[in-house]
Amino acid sequence: MNGIVLVIIAVILVASFVIYRVLPSKGYGYLSRLTCTKCSHTFDYRWIPGGSFTAIRFGTKRYMRCPSCHKWSMFDVWSTRVS
User: Fold this and answer.
1) What pLDDT, on a 0 to 100 scale, did the predictor assign at position 67?
2) Alpha-carbon distance 4 to 18, whole Å?
């Protein structure tokens, strides 16, 4: 039973690595230039449609933390795409 759990965890870790590290480096995914509404800090955010560990998705928008002021805000990642 413990062996099956370890295999499942290993598969999840490998899949997460491929989805969030390998695919963006191969050109899959988008880059958005976002501006925080609270502190006006501009930053680049690389994202993959349908996936997020650090944000809550609401259609084309994501509710996530600003890397500068660390406050949560709503960001429209779809309309601010750079590539």
Assistant:
1) 92
2) 21
| Torsions phi, psi for 78 (to 5 deg) | -75, -45
3-state secondary structure 20-78: HHHHHHCCCCEEEEEECCCCCCEEEEEEECCECCCEEEECCEEEEECCCCCCEEEEECC
Q: Which amino acid is at 51?
A: G
pTM of the full predicted structure?
Answer: 0.64
Query: pLDDT under 70 in the chain at which residues?
Result: 19-27, 83
Tokens 């805000």, located at residue: 73
| CA–CA gap between residue 46 and residue 67 (Å, rounded) | 13
* Sheet (strand 61-65) strand order: 55-58, 61-65, 72-76
List the domain boundaries for the chain. 2-76
